[in-house]
Amino acid sequence: MRQKKETVWLIQSLSTILYYPLGGVFIGLALVPSVSILYLFWTHTYHWMPVWRVVVFSILSGFGWFVFGFTLLIAIVALNRIFPVRLPEGTWPMSSDLLRWTYHNSCIAMANYIFLKFLFLSPYIIWFFRGMGAKMGKRIQLNSGQLTDVYLIEIGDDCVIGSEARIICHQMSRGCLTLKRVKIGNRVMIGIMSVICPGVEIGDGATIMPNSFVLKNTKIHPGTVWGGVPAVQIKRKPGKAERKEGGIP
Fold first, then answer.
1. How confident is the model over 199-238, as pLDDT tens digits?
2. Could you tell me if residue 16 is left (phi over 0), alpha (psi between -120 and 50 degrees) or otherwise beta?
3. Which of 10, 105, 108, 137 could form a disulfide with 157 if both were Cys (CB 3.0 to 4.6 A apart)?
4. This prediction's pTM
């Protein structure tokens, strides 16, 4: 047991030591286009009035932030495609293999904390997660960047993922890492601040109420409403036949 704890500590320490410099390289390279724009402007406008020079420089700095953000996302997706480091589903002991898993999620965390928040509910955040391996359908409204192990996430069409909802495909237990896929059907609504754990399957048309915690390996039937901590079925939505019999259009 003590040896396992020491292994966990060692892997966590190595992850920190390795990924801070890696993050610095990512951020530095992503800054090159923005810094180049600012440098060219400053060196070619020395004859301008200082006040106008400062105003335009400030505007370009704001524009440069978005150039930096999109460049960072493109760099992360490109490197993920060139050097895929995904661990498949299953249980993994604490070993150097987990550095690959840590690297993948560290890249997603870096993108989320630096820039993804600016892209919530836009098609660009869907593009990013698809680029990182997630299977996502059409017309998804994604208002969260709290997705981990995204290559194990499947989301159908017309889904709504609420603000800061978390979808997690891993669990650490007894010195091992367990990875399991999360499947979300069509027309599913996941409320704000909800947590979806590994192995969860959500059927078409289901609803997860805000601030709910769906335990691992839970199977949620189509058209049902779940909520609570832990989440339990609250009610079932009426099907088409039931709505017609009850006079509901």
1. 999 999 999 999 999 999 999 999 999 999 999 998 765 5
2. alpha
3. 137
4. 0.82
